[in-house]
Every structure is written in C-alpha cells, then in structure tokens.
Specification:
homodimer, L-amino peptidase D-ALA esterase/amidase, Ubiquitin-like (UB roll), 2 domains, 6-stranded mixed beta sheet, globular
C-alpha cells in the first residue's frame, strides 16, 4: 500500500503498533502448528477503553463469550492475546477456563485482573487448547513485546491461518492540533460470511474518546464494511472485531457526535473497508476480488441483501472464476435473495479496469461481444454493477471466486 | 431400482408412461445442444386435472409464469412440452410468446387452446429460444409420441443438463379394487436449493381425484421432500413440479381427505422423496449423498433450518468430500442457521453403512478413532445425526459433497 492522503487522513506505515503507546509481540507456542508463530499480543501500558462486535452464530466460541463480557463492562483493557491453530469453540467449560488462564498469565505480570485482557482464537473447532502451552506462550509474549512496525507485523502474521497475505493498515489525522493514529490488523480467509464481522480484527488507536462513542462508531462502521463480505457463506463461531483506545494522542476527549467524532468514524470506516476488501480478495483459493454494486434500489436493506446474495452465490462465484459472462446467475441470485423487485426494471453491467459493458437491459438480454466480456471478467478485481431503477438506495458487497483450491483447502483442513 | 413392495404400494418399472393413458416422446430440436435429444413430451388424450408448485425466486422464468396461470385455472391439460439447453428465463415478453407458440403448436394438432399445454425449460438463463426450432420440435414430438416404458425413459433423458443419471420411478397401489399408478421423472443437478421444488419434476397418474385435493397433496408433500434438498444454495428461476391426473384408473373419485387420499399422498411422498434424494446424490460434481438428520429439536421449523444449513454449508460439503471428521463445521452451520439452541444439549454422530460413532457430547468434543471416522465418512451415502435433546421435532435434509468437479462444471457451464 502506498502512502497517501485520502480525504482528511494520511495512510501511514505499520499496523497495530502505529498509534502511540501500543506494543506487540509474536511467539511460537506450538498450540497446533509446528515451526511457525501462532500467538500474538497487542499491549498498552496506558489503560484502554474498548469496544467489540461479535459473531451472531448461536454457537459462540469461548473467547467471544469472554471478550463480550469484558467490552460490555467498564473494566479497562491492557492487552489482547490471540492464538491461531485451534479456535477454542465447542469446548465447554474447559474452553472458558483457558480464556481465564490466559488473562491471569498477563495479570500476574502487570498486576491486575484477568478481565484486563481480551483473548482471541482461530483455527479448528471442537478441539481443546493445552492450557500449559497457551500460558507459557502468553508469558513469552509479555517478555518479548516491543514498540515499532516490525513487532506489529509479526503479531499480524502470527494469527494467519489459511490467509496468504498479511493484512494491516494505519492512518493518521489531526484533531484539535493533535495527531491521532489508528492501526489495525485482521485475519480471515475461510468461514467468512457477513454476519457481524466474520473474522478476527483488531484496531488500536491513541485517540481520546468515551467508551460509549467508541462502541457506536464501531457498530456503525461494521455494517457496511466487514458485514458486506463473504467468502463461503459460513458465519464463524469466533468472529471478533475489537478496538482499543488509550487516549495518548491527548486530543480534546470526544464525548459527543461532533465533527471530531465524524473524522474518527471516517478513518475507522476507511480502515475497516480496506481490511474487509483485503480479506475478500484473499478468500480461500481466490483468484479475484468479486464486487457487486447495487444502485437505485428501493431500500438500503434490499440493496444490501441483493449485493450479498450475488457475491455469495456459488454459481456466480464459479462464473467469475471461469471468466464466464453468465449474467443470468447474478439475476437469479438477486431473485432468491429475499428482496422484491421487477426484473423489467433492471440493468446489469460487467465492469473492471479493462472496461464496462451492459449485458441485460430492463427484462431482456443485450447482445454483447463475448471476447470483450471475457477480457473484463479476467481482471483481478471484477465488479457486477446493477442498476435497479426503482429507488435511490445503494450497497456494495465483496467476495471472491470459487476455485479448485477452495475445495482442496477445505477438504482436508485439519491435517 | 429393484421392484419391491413398500408399505401399501409396489415399486414398478418405468416412469411417466407407467400410468394408463400416458404417452411420451423425445426429440433433438437443436435448441442449444447438438447431437442429443433436448425436447420431451408427456401426453394424455384423456384430459387431466393438474397441480403445480413453483420457484419462490422473484426472477421467475417465462414457463413458470405460464404454467402457474394454467394450474391455477380450471382448464384441463393434455400435454407437457419441455426443453433443455436454454432456460427461457430473463427473456421478457419474447419469452412468454415462446411459451404460447409451443402451446399453440400442440393445440393446432389436437384441437384446443394453448392453455391445454404446460411447458418447461432448463438451461442457460438470459438467452432467447428460437421460436421456429421449438415449434418444429413440438410438432415432431406430437408425431412420434408413443406408449410404453422406453418412450418415458427417452423423455426423461432429453431433459437432463449436467445430470449424470436418469431419474424416474413408478409405483402402483389399489383403491376401491382398482389399480392406481403414479409415474414420475425429474432433472436437476446444479442451481438446486430448497425453496419450492428447485428442479423440473413431472408426475403422471391415472388416479381419479379432484383438482383441489391434487394440489393440496402436492403442496404438502413437497415441503419435506424436494424442499429439503440442496446442491449449491442457488434457488433456480425455473423450478417446477407438476402433477397430471387423467382419472383412467376408474377408482371412486377422491373428493375428501379419506383413507384413499392418504394412500395417494403416501405414494406421492415416496415418489418425491425418491427423486429428491436421487437429485441430491447426483448434484453437480458430487461423489456422495450427504444427509443431515436432526432429532429432538424444539420445533419442526428449527429442525428443518438446521438440517438444511448443515447440508448447505460449503465447509461441511468440502469436509464430506475429504472424508474429514471436522465435526465443528456442522455445529457451526447449525449455529448460524437462525435456529436457537444450547450447544451444551447437543450430541453429534457420524453414520453410514460402515458404522456409527459419537464425536460431540453436550458441549464438548468426544475423543474418537480417526481411522474409524474416515471409514464411516468414505461411504457413498453419509449421515450426520444430531440429537438436540431439547424437544421432539425432527427433520432430514439431503445434499452432496463439494468437489473440484462442481467448480469445473460451473466455471464454464455455457460452453
């Protein structure tokens, strides 16, 4: 990602350690993987207000239950400890005990309570984590934590599972003459479907903001970003997106929805959209980022469910993989989405860096050049643009193509 | 399928031509495919009462709109004309004109109106059918129609698209000393998802029954049979299931929900379940029939959505393909289905001809033998049995595994 100015903020180097006062670390704790880092720490000596959004899956993993209790309370947070390899989901009371033991390991070092620590897990469901290993790993993380971009990147890489690219970003902007910074990292490649946040994501910031507004901004932003991506329609048991704010930027505290709040919200939106698209494009086995843009729909809700239905359809996804101009599949997916519309109003276009063409015009197919269509659909990012001509609402959803490699990765994930 | 007696009825040879008075034919009309039959006719000189259930997709294909108008009316039906290759969906007024022209071609021969004819199409969406070709094909079908098993089978084969096996069945039973017969054929392999019927299916019968009760029996039976299968979550624009009853069995007319009605309903259920499972097991690229059986759930609706969520999950389907005992994926799919339950009540088993084993017991994983699990999951039909321990409702759904071949078939379906 190139450094550049976007609207009121600057994209800068780094991830979770970019904001003032945040340290990070990674460790190879042997939770499940051999010969790779599998634990990450985000740490702020200055206590943080926190906010979180979580999976809507009825089967919630232990770390989701633990974190929700923490972010719903007024306890200040100092650390986030995350492991990859095992998801600590479907693990009963033993799973909850592991969350507490992890928090206690940090509390023993800094003085405090286990609830000062948020935890996260990603990997195989229905397997227990070895408590001794995760506690030893946590101690190692605390001993080796440091400031600086490299530590943040190492933490971000440690939580990857089937991800092929590391996903982090940081932005800064001014509030009341003070520089405020947001940093973030996320992982997610399979079991990704819009319903709450569908991945693990961690945002750090040195902004000074009231907890209630931090949660409001996060809940607001997630609906149009992380909740609009899908890889496979499978809403995970572990989805978690957390924000920690330690206030070290020393800006005038944000206590109402003023212009400063709006600026922060926009920066948070940018960061979340960036990571969401990165995750969709890095979906398991994916060769292309697949975007569906619905415009002029009757309602925002209709636009959203149609956009998500198009990028979520296996047949649409397979057509994108095959660069096949089989536009009927996109219309079919809109039709079973639950939204109501008249196909005689609809116009459908293929769009990418290679060009744009209309293929369906208000109820009937439009003759088009197959070679030209294939060219447009062969780019790394492909958009299906659909004009409903029935209102003024719009929505965009992101997914990826369905490939042999998706099947390969998931037919034998545990080994 | 072996001939045998099941409950009160006998499974017999043949399909749609098994009941008295039904003829069939196939033709190679060159609608889209070359060198294969692509049109089918079912014909009864004796007028039939008819009933139908159709796709819930908002984008309905022209034949769906045509047939629904016919089965909703009191017009008697003599023929069904079906083509494969092009779906006649997203085709505007021209698509409706093609349905009418097809009906008119039959009406010209038998004397009558176009509405005496039901039509069906399956294939590529968003492409127009050449009217001259489908009219010529219809005339050829009418000229070559005949009685007998072979004609029924030829018709059944002509409507296949990516199907790899022909799907037909017939049963007979006694009502009031008269032999009543049901015959049926169906096609469906991709774009298959439970919402109305998700395929083309045609049932013929010589039973004497009032139209209203015929429709009631069909609507009743479809909810637990065709509506409980999924291949890829894509509810087609063309799904249609029709029943034609010509009354030639001369049984006392069924005019109320008596024991005779119940017998007919049971036979219809058997036929529909048989074809539904055949379709699921012959899902595009499938190597296994994948069954999810939910027992002791709080409500029937909960049981149904959980069963369908499990067989519909890409991650579950990929695990079945890999014979991978990754049971957390099934629990995860139940969790995001929309049903409410406590994972601490749930018991999950793998079951097939090779054996049965528990892998999850009320909130926690059960240690199990991996080799034994792989053996159970390697059969051609695999069941995930889930005891909710929360009530007394149950439901079964059928799907198939997700394979390289599914992606291959659908990445380039149009060519």
């Amino acid at each position: 990602m190139e450094l550049n100015r976007i609207g009121n903020f600057e994209v800068i180097q780094g991830g979770v350690t970019a904001p003032k006062g945040f340290q990070a670390a990674s460790a190879a704790a042997g939770i499940k993987y051999k010969n790779r880092t599998d634990m990450a720490l985000i740490y702020s000596e200055t206590p943080c207000v926190s906010a979180g959004v979580y999976t809507t899956n009825v089967v919630k993993a232990a770390p989701v239950l633990w974190d929700k209790a923490v972010t719903d309370s007024d306890v200040k947070v100092h650390a986030v400890v995350v492991n990859s390899g095992i998801a600590n989901a479907c693990t009963g009371q033993q799973g909850m005990d592991i969350c507490r033991a992890t928090g206690q390991a940090v509390a023993d070092i800094i003085g405090g309570v286990p609830e000062n620590v948020l935890v996260g897990s990603t990997g195989v469901i229905g397997m227990q984590i070895d408590t001794a290993k995760i506690v030893a790993g946590t101690k190692e993380l605390m001993a080796s934590k440091s400031f600086g971009i490299e530590a943040g990147t190492a933490a971000s890489k440690a939580i990857m599972t089937t991800d092929t690219i590391n996903k982090e970003i940081a932005v800064s902007f001014e509030i009341g003459g003070k520089t405020v910074t947001l940093g973030a990292m996320s992982k997610g490649s399979g079991m990704i479907h819009p319903n709450m946040c569908t991945m693990l994501g961690y945002v750090t910031t040195d902004i000074c903001i009231e907890k209630k507004l931090l949660q409001e901004a996060l809940s607001d932003v997630v609906t149009d970003t992380f909740n609009m991506i899908t890889v496979d329609g499978d809403t995970s048991t572990n989805d978690t997106l957390l924000v920690l704010a330690n206030g070290l930027a020393e800006n005038p505290v944000i206590a109402e929805k003023n212009a400063d709040y709006q600026l922060f919200r926009d920066a948070l939106y940018f960061v979340c959209e960036y990571l969401a698209k990165k995750m969709a494009g890095d979906g398991e086995g994916a060769t292309a980022l697949f975007e569906a843009k619905i415009i002029n729909a009757k309602s925002k809700e209709d636009a959203k469910i149609m956009a998500r239905s198009v990028v979520g359809s296996n047949l649409s996804k397979a057509a994108i993989y095959g660069h096949d101009a089989n536009f009927g599949r996109f219309l079919c997916a809109m039709g079973y989405s639950g939204a109501d519309f008249d196909q005689n109003d609809v116009q459908l276009y293929f769009e990418s860096k290679a060009g744009k063409m209309m293929v369906f015009d208000k109820g009937s197919p439009v003759p088009f050049d197959e070679d030209e269509a294939t060219k447009i659909l062969s780019e790394e990012a492909v958009t299906i643009l659909i004009n409903m001509n029935e209102g003024s609402a719009s929505a965009t959803a992101w997914g990826c193509d369905l490939t042999y490699d998706y099947v390969k990765i998931n037919a034998d994930y545990r080994s």
